[in-house]
Write a structure and sequence with these properties.
The protein is mostly helical. It contains eight helices and no strands. The N and C termini lie far apart (about 45 Å).
Length: about 240
């Protein structure tokens, strides 16, 4: 991954970093801004749902939570195809549906923390998540080492953790297993964040018409990693608090 001499239009990137690629910076800023709007949207949906105990009970106490879970997984699987081959309207719509589904999924968790008088843990989890995400994304953006070889490992590890989480939710109901899987998710998705950031950066093309779609895809990917980190960091803090 050597950007020496590569022309992105605004400037020529040099190995000593003295030149600044304004086009790439604007592209990445667009990715982060769009991701931040989705995080804010998820927060608003979560707060709206969490303020309604009946709605929280409907989601948490019925199979509806698994409908949202399946929707999140399904959208995550099909989103790249829609973003790169469908209309931009469909891509944007899918992204906001994804953010809203996450908001509904998180709401019962936020409600439980508020009911237990542990609202401060939510803010703490958000701050930790932002710090971890920021550090790992910055590493992915600045790393000279090609991170693509670890992509397969991260994918397989994510699948393994997903299976473990589902089995624990349906069968084992183990607090210790929940703690261990959440710790594993935080570690793996820290790596995923760095990998995705580098991948998104490499998708940039000077003057290319695919930049808009790549920015949507990048925001979608990083948003998913951010929210996943937040949920599991919050779970870790909750378990530690109860113990």
């Amino acid at each position: 991954m050597n950007d020496t001499g590569r022309n992105y239009g605004a400037t020529t990137v040099r190995a000593d970093g003295r030149a600044i690629d304004q086009g790439l910076r604007q592209y990445m800023l667009g990715v982060y801004n769009y991701m931040a709007m989705a995080v804010a949207g998820t927060g608003l949906v979560s707060l709206a749902v969490a303020s309604n105990p009946a709605m929280v009970q409907t989601i948490a106490g019925t199979p509806l939570k698994w409908v949202f879970f399946a929707a999140i997984l399904g959208i995550g699987w099909f989103a790249p195809r829609v973003i790169f081959s469908g209309s931009k309207t469909a891509a944007h719509g899918l992204f906001w549906i994804y953010a809203a589904a996450w908001g509904a999924m998180i709401a019962p968790m936020l409600y439980a923390f508020n009911a237990a008088g542990a609202a401060s843990e939510i803010y703490k989890a958000f701050f930790i998540t932002a710090s971890v995400f920021g550090a790992t994304s910055l590493y992915g953006y600045t790393a000279k080492r090609d991170l693509s070889p670890i992509g397969t490992f991260l994918f397989m590890a994510s699948v393994g953790l997903l299976i473990a989480i589902v089995l624990n939710a349906l069968i084992f109901h183990s607090t210790m297993m929940s703690l261990l899987t959440s710790c594993g998710v935080v570690l793996i998705f820290s790596g995923v964040t760095a990998y995705e950031t580098q991948m998104i950066k490499e998708m940039y093309r000077d003057g290319g018409q695919t930049n808009d779609r790549a920015a949507i895809f990048g925001a979608f990917a990083l948003y998913g990693s951010f929210v996943t980190l937040f949920v599991h960091i919050l779970n870790i803090l909750g378990i530690m608090r109860n113990n």
